Amino acid sequence: MAALPGIESKDPALEEAVSAWLLESRMPLPPGLRLSLEVVEAIPEIEDPRTSYPQGSIEIRAGDPLGWVHVRWPNRAMARIEERRPEARILVTREAVRDLDPFLRGFLLIVLIFLWKRTGRFHIHAGTAIDPHGRGWMLIGHSQSGKSTTTALLAARGWRVGTDDIAFLTDCGERVGVLGFRDRIALRSGGHALLGKSGGTLLPRREKAGFWPEELGARWVQTVEPDFVVFTSLGGERTSFAPASSREILSGLIHRSVWVMFEPMGAQEHLDLLARLGRQARCFHATLAPDLFTESRTLEDFLP
Q: What is this structure's pTM?
């Protein structure tokens, strides 16, 4: 396949792999995107006096006094992201190219989060779905809070779903929308068992099994305008919902949208969207329990 516009590399296989991954995600590319990828033998050292913010094994340096963003995956890859333009120069080692999944889903995704931010799309760690009544839902929680398993359950029960994990806030005029990064819904063995589904694609590095929404009987939808925001956690024998306070809402949204903290560029717009979302949606804390899977109820049945 031909490379997507704005994706440049002297390595045709890398260019094709990055383009294929982005096409599969169905996320609109930033206007004016320029992503230059160069395969190198080793990652050079660069002096950068700014504080390093770790995201797993990835190091991020951003903001004053330099402006541009420095993303580094030690001994594997590094990127320089321009301060205001959706442009990045990436150096990646041959070793990282031979093991593309962590490069794409780990390092490159972080680079793209900054590039999308430059065009008004702001990352939030969340799942999204639309219920049979056409109402939008957003599920927010940490990586073991039941978010992905619940998204898969909703898909299996006929809801349209956008993402179980990677989402981007965007201004839809009067409303706040959430764009979903299309990917397999990834389930650990416990979630796989609760769902009662066989098959899926083994994701060995993540120790999960992945299902496309269509494999679960759902239709994928890119944009969801949340009417409900649910902060998820696991516990107890029965699923329960409780309203979230105004303070808890904004705090919870910021906590799952940490990219607002890395650089001043776009921070106010990002915060404004989070605040608007908190006003737009009814917000709840949900404690998810096995009855959600053993009974024929879905989230809307638990609304107070």
A: 0.94
